[in-house]
Give the backbone structure.
Amino acid sequence: MSKKYLYKFHEGDKEMKSLLGGKGANLAEMTKIGLPVPPGVIISTQACKDYYRDGQKLPEGLKDQILEHIAYLESVTGKGFGDSKNPLLVSVRSGAAVSMPGMMDTILNLGLNDETVKGLARITNDERFAFDCYRRFITMYSDVVMGIEHVAFESILRTYKKKLEIEHDHELTPDDLKMIIQEFKSMLRIKHGSEFPQDPKEQLINAVEAVFKSWQNSRAILYRKLHKIPDSLGTAVNIQSMVFGNMGVKSGTGVAFTRNPSTGVKELYGEYLVNAQGEDVVAGIRTPQPIEKLKEEMPDAYKQFIDTSKLLEKHYKDMQDIEFTIENSKLYILQTRNGKKTAAAAIRIAVDLVREGLITKEEAVGRIDITQLDQLLHPTIDITTNYEVIARGLPASPGAAVGEIVFDADEAESMGKEGINVILVRNETTPDDLNGIVGAQGILTSRGGMTSHAAVVARGMGKPCVCGCDELDIDMEREKLRIGNKIFSRGDIITIDGSTGNVIEGEVPLLVPTLSKEFQTILEWADEIRTLGVRANADNPEDAAKAREFGAKGIGLCRTEHMFMGPERLPIVQKMILSSNDDERKAALEKLLPIQQEDFYGILKAMQGYPVTIRLLDPPLHEFLPNREELIEEIVKLRCLGGSEEELREKEALFAKVKALSESNPMLGHRGCRLGITFPEIYATQVEAVFRAAVQLAKEGVKTVPEIEIPLVMDVNELSTLKEVVDQVAVSVFAEEGVSVEYTVGTMIEVPRACATAGEIAQIADFFSFGTNDLTQTCFGFSRDDAEGKFLHSYLEKKIINENPFVVLDRAGVGRLMEMAVTKGRASREDLLIGICGEHGGDPSSIEYCYQIGLDFVSCSPYRVPVARLAAAQAALRHSN
Ligand code: PEP
Ligand code: MG
């Protein structure tokens, strides 16, 4: 006895994908739950495997089994294969276990011949349709089975239409089509040396073999290679009886969603065409009707559809996207799948399904596609409108913005204050431009990578930013921007999309974000599930408040360098850097103290007793000084054109300092705690400002939890030296104020040596926080700006690495270092608090890894907090037990 190769739809189910292919298993499942699916049978993938095993020969018994199953189809449909009065027509489709869209072959309307076509014409009462089906069938069959490419047929069709002076296929009359079919056949005779087969059984057996062969066509082989699908799987073949939506006014075809895919509202959403075939809906020749109209036109079919859609939702537990056909008032479901939806709809539907008792809270949280959430947290471009992308840069900070082009930061600030929307366009930004960034709706730069000043500042503020867009040619003096051959002036409107890096001419309508009630609900459920804490990176009271609003339970990184910037502070900071003795430096720092105290007061207060990790100054001092090239230019001007001697001397002194402080590799230079070791008074001033603010709040009855964080530590001795500074300041402030506040001292872990010596460091540190931006740079030996600007894309293209490690945490390298630090750190100190505050803290896959290696919290930009809450919950769901 031969193996069983064929399965009737009701013999399978959705678990049988590897044997029946994805499409076959889905059709079987729909049949099993009682849906009106046109009857059909599936030839298993095993038959395809055996076909290749036997050197491309149909395996023994297959042909007989196919013919037996055709007899079955004849009996259930009441039609006959080759019967000229009531012909059974079938579709023959490939379908592997893994979806390979469009890679293999499909043949529709098989069973047509010179006689059955007449029967079809009579039944459908549409001769034109019947002969058009026959013409298409001959083309498809000849192409797939006989190897005559369809261009040969198209050329006959084109010539014919030209002769008749018509433009569209649907203008061809039945007689035209008959003539064309004759020409097709004679061409076949000449090219293939044989007649078009008239026996449906012969057509079917040949079609099945052709589908097996298409498993090994070059596009299928390439597709499998790209998607790592094993060649050994083989394809199944689905043979399904055709149904016709064009059999008159009691027939039709359509597509409908069980809920609104844009909003998630529970209402049928879709359209259909009366007396039409599937392609007519897509072709847009006739305007489809809304699905509600079906209620009036075909009430029975409508009722069947409503019952079916309810059944489908209940079975698949999600909104369904259903393709259907009505043949003489009888409904058939051709396909159903979980429908694609907007992020807003996905959230609403998930919440509703929980309330309807169809899924659990865990399932609802688990099925939200986190990558879609950006849509809800930032203004986005309305993609239904037409727009032209004129340049592309790096997607540095998500969201879209529209505004007038402005090149000058002060102007951006003043226009912003007047309520005018502007986009600040610069080659790059510096701390001097901060006021302009605040005033602008978005930032566009021609230079700089994902950690350039513009990118980091914009992300922190949740403002859209496109940077490193090297197609921009900016003439600052004439205030002109050239992109290709287009020239834009100050005041011209552009739109930027920081989620894609697109720059668009003119205004594109934007969709405004809101945290809907349903989104809040999903986030609350996520909080019940997750064990990983979520904090935010925030360095001003507004961001701290935003972070709280989005549900952050503390600040995991308060970068303090921004407290040294801005028009009021920068001159004092520069004076501090340029001072020639300790007294001068102390005097400048004293001026900074009350300003910083006010900042810390605001941040600590906004966090209402949640912890705030305050990182002491990290960047090298020259970042606070003017640009070297600009200084040279000014000095040359003063020298050549004559100017005040005093000014010249000042500039020269400044230049000398800039030169002295400049480094060949600032990323590895005099920064972080190294700065604190050489200038302890800077750190001392910062912690004094923190403690004074905390004491002030304590006196007002507000609880605070300051965590003082030392950056870029590589050895325990650095930490012990600086912890002493912190503790001394604490003792003196608390003694002076008569109030003391609890605080902790910990370190950033952002160089490999800190990971290797984490055991020693943890003996002193109260907490660790992984600075994975720097840890990635130092682990890879890449400087991020250089890597992203110059060679990383080749690495990605050549698949030397699979992901940008600055975006998605590199588990193999950086991750291993982190694991080492966690193990060694906790071995020294069991209650060591460990978090992450690099950008990876807002990336779902990195958050999952942080959960797996046992971190206590992740910290990310306030706008990523909802993403992190959900990602932490999904990680817990995926890895619990
Ligand atoms: C880090 O290195 O990951 C970090 C958070 O610090 P920064 O980005 O400020 O260097
Ligand atoms: Mg760092």
The chain has five domains: 6-241, 252-341, 379-511, 530-620+663-878, 627-662.
